[in-house]
Amino acid sequence: MSGICGNVLVTGSNRGLGLELVRQLAESPSPPLQIFAGCRDPNGPRAQDLRELAQKHQNIIIIKLDTSSEASISEASKAIGPKLKDGCLNLLINNAGVNIPGALADTGEKEMVDVFVTNVVGPMLIAKEFLPYLQKAASQSVQHTGMSCRKSAVINVSTLLSSIEKCHETFTMAPMYPYRASKAALNMLTRCLAEDFKKDGILVMALHPGWVKTDMGGPQAPLLVVDSAKGMLKVISSLTEKDTGTLLDWEGKSIPW
Ligand code: NDP
């Protein structure tokens, strides 16, 4: 199904969209060689479902990775490096993210900083730390021309709520200052990385999963996690050079910045 091969890293993969992305990748008829499933507490109760999934699929490797900690990101990179087949990482999905209620009255310095650390600083540090493996994947991929996830790609999981142009339509139903501002910053990070990594042939884009029934999306969300993840993987597998530096949704539709 997915057409995603090689070696993949998904952050925040113990529940919600991250877990479903790992599940669908592992269950695909032509699964990736290795799926590194990042999770901040691999032995804790919140990783039970991920551990059970990993027991069924030998290509799932659970990695301790707290994306809000520079030390943890560095340790995860050191742990993954020697395990990577040929030292190549073909696809990095920066999925881990946090949200808090975030109306103006509830938002102080701590709320802003905490959300920024996970939603922006983490993906930036991870892209920097794993760049050598992404570069190796891009340079070693002789059979694939142009940019693609089969060669080397970074997907930053963003949101419709990051769109500055759409804010007048979406603000009233979701007045979340830290979350919106952090994901708009993630979009800029995406554009910067896309420009920076062009010379290496690494595709970088931002992807909105839809409004999805997860702990974050809540029970009233219209989209099932299984359908969102399916759509996301379809979009990811069809990305080409023209998609680097874009913001798309789970159906492949463009979202204005
Ligand atoms: P959930 O809250 O259901 O899951 C979030 C995941 O991120 C968990 O696995 C959580 O791990 C992990 N995580 C959070 N902080 C860290 C950290 N510091 N280090 C490692 N892992 C961390 O959210 P979703 O699955 O719904 O969201 C996934 C992504 O999709 C997010 O980036 C979110 O912003 C985005 N998104 C979601 C939408 C929705 O409707 N659901 C809509 C638009 C975007 P733990 O269990 O340890 O907390």
UniProtKB/TrEMBL annotation:
One GO CC term on file: cytoplasm
Domain of life: Eukaryota
Alphabetized InterPro entries for the sequence: Fungal_SecMetab_SDRs, NAD(P)-bd_dom_sf, SDR_fam
Molecular function terms from GO: oxidoreductase activity
Family to which this protein belongs: Belongs to the short-chain dehydrogenases/reductases (SDR) family.
Name of the featured protein: Uncharacterized protein zgc:158868
Organism: Chanos chanos
